[in-house]
Amino acid sequence: MAATVWVVAQVRSFTDEGWALDWDLGGVFTTEAKARAACNAPGDAMWSMQLDEPLGRPRVEPPGITYPAALNKK
Fold first, then answer.
1. Cα–Cα distance between 27 and 35 in angstroms, integer?
2. Is residue 71 part of a domain?
3. CB burial string 38-66: b at 16+ within 10 A, e below
4. pTM of the prediction?
5. What is residue 33's three-state secondary structure?
6. What's the number of domains the chain is made of?
């Protein structure tokens, strides 16, 4: 079952043709409304993506993913 997520990018600079040169990840959200709420600057962009296999709390966490990340700050 595929799942849809919304990605927000906070674009810092553009080429003369309008392509993003430098951007930061603004977040990945489960709804369009949440993603749109995170867009607060003229250069912010968002798009949807399909995940082949959603990772949820009931699933086993794959190696290399730390959850919750806040507990592992150094």
1. 8
2. no
3. bbeeeebebeeeeeeeeeeeeeeeeeeee
4. 0.63
5. helix
6. 1
